[in-house]
Q: What sequence folds into this?
């Protein structure tokens, strides 16, 4: 058995997947798991597709568990169930590839140091992504590790979509739009081309609506516009992030409210969005449940929907029209009410909804006219596994 370990390491959690690679190099799910609460009292859970009993346990380390402890536990589990010798490589989700890392790479000492220099561009993600790489090199120095970048898919964005209207010297320093969620968009682009090759050659908008949310406009499967920018703060309203904001608000908060840059950053990343507006939760399911009796939850839902509709209009303008809209990620895949509201808000572009198909969560949720709307579940792990398998020695 050839196993690949997929890792998505955040500040307080590590999500992991185990995939087998068949003779054609295609990945298949074997297990999905996570370790949550790193730095506190971490809990490990893993579910398997091969009949192994699911794991749910509190990590016992004697001290606060680190990323290295988390990886150690994952490797111990792989060893116990399948033998470590079946592990042929690891693939990492790395949020920022900067201007130069525009496709998956085999990670080594030199390129890891280059990636570490990008930390100021993604301070809340990059150090944790790289902590997992460092830890795995310590634990298994000879295991090939591959990095896949969330920015890479957007390397095809034209300069007019990429640059801010800032002085040229700043643009040359890399202060520009990069775009994110690229691993998800890359997966969806390929999945859509396999399902509907003709339409995939046209103008496609993908709405990745999860706790993080963005839109990508594609032409012929390539990214030409993305609502996220220099950071993953830009664009749509999200679970805990504000999305697009007049930058003057930040000066005001710093000058008049005496907030530090760190305090503003924390507020914009983790205390805003659905959570900030509702004062209740960043979880769409909770807001849907509470909305009938809670005007703040209702407003949060209405604002989220409004922002999606408004930004789709902007992306459609950049594409000079739209042939397909694809919903994906936690909210996009599961919230049929949100999809219905968005499509109703896009009647002016020619979209109509097939209510039954939407409620059943079919792949095609509108009449198959132009434009048409789809729901395609994302699978970032499968894309990383495939990229990893092609780069293994
Ligand atoms: P993700 O970041 O892609 O895992 O998506 C997380 C978001 O998806 C959270 O806001 C969840 O509340 C939302 N979500 C998951 N399942 C559902 C569902 N059945 N209905 C509405 N939202 C959902």
A:
């Amino acid at each position: 058995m050839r196993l690949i370990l997929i890792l998505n390491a955040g500040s307080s959690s590590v999500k992991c997947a185990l995939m087998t690679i068949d003779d054609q190099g295609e990945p298949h799910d074997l297990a999905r798991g996570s370790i949550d609460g790193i730095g506190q009292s971490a809990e490990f859970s893993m579910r398997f597709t091969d009949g192994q009993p699911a794991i749910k346990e509190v990590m016992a380390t004697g001290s606060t568990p680190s990323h290295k402890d988390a990886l150690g536990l994952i490797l111990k589990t792989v060893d116990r169930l399948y033998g470590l010798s079946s592990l042929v490589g690891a693939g990492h989700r790395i949020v920022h590839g900067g201007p130069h890392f525009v496709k998956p790479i085999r990670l080594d000492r030199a390129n890891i140091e280059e990636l570490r220099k990008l930390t100021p561009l993604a301070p809340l993600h990059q150090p944790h992504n790289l902590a997992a790489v460092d830890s795995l090199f310590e634990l298994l120095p000879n295991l090939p590790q591959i990095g896949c970048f969330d920015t890479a898919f957007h390397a095809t964005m034209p300069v007019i979509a990429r640059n801010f209207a800032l002085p040229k010297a700043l643009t040359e320093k890399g202060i520009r739009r990069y775009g994110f969620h690229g691993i998800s968009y890359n997966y969806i682009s390929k999945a859509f081309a396999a399902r509907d090759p003709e339409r995939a050659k046209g103008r496609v908008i993908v709405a990745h609506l999860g706790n993080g949310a963005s839109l990508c406009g594609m032409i012929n499967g390539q990214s030409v516009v993305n609502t996220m920018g220099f950071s993953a703060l830009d664009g749509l309203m999200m679970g805990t992030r504000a999305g697009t904001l007049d930058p003057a608000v930040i000066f005001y908060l710093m000058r008049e409210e005496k907030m530090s840059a760190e305090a503003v950053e924390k507020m914009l990343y983790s205390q805003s969005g659905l959570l900030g507006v509702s004062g209740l939760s960043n979880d769409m399911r909770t807001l849907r449940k509470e909305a009938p009796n809670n005007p703040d939850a209702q407003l949060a839902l209405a604002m989220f929907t409004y922002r999606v509709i408004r930004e789709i209009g902007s992306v459609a303008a950049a594409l000079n029209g739209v042939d397909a809209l694809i919903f994906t990620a936690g909210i996009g895949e599961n919230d049929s009410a949100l999809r219905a509201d968005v499509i109703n808000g896009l009647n002016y572009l020619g979209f109509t909804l097939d209510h039954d198909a939407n409620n059943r969560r079919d792949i095609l949720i509108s009449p198959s006219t132009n434009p048409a709307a789809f729901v395609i579940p994302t699978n970032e792990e499968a894309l990383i596994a495939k990229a990893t398998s092609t780069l293994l020695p």
Notes: The longest helix spans residues 295-319. The pocket of adenosine monophosphate is lined by residues 210-211, 239, 283-285, 329-331, 334-335 (CB under 6 Å). The chain has two domains: 3-149, 197-380. The domain at 3-149 is CATH 3.30.420.40 (Nucleotidyltransferase; domain 5).
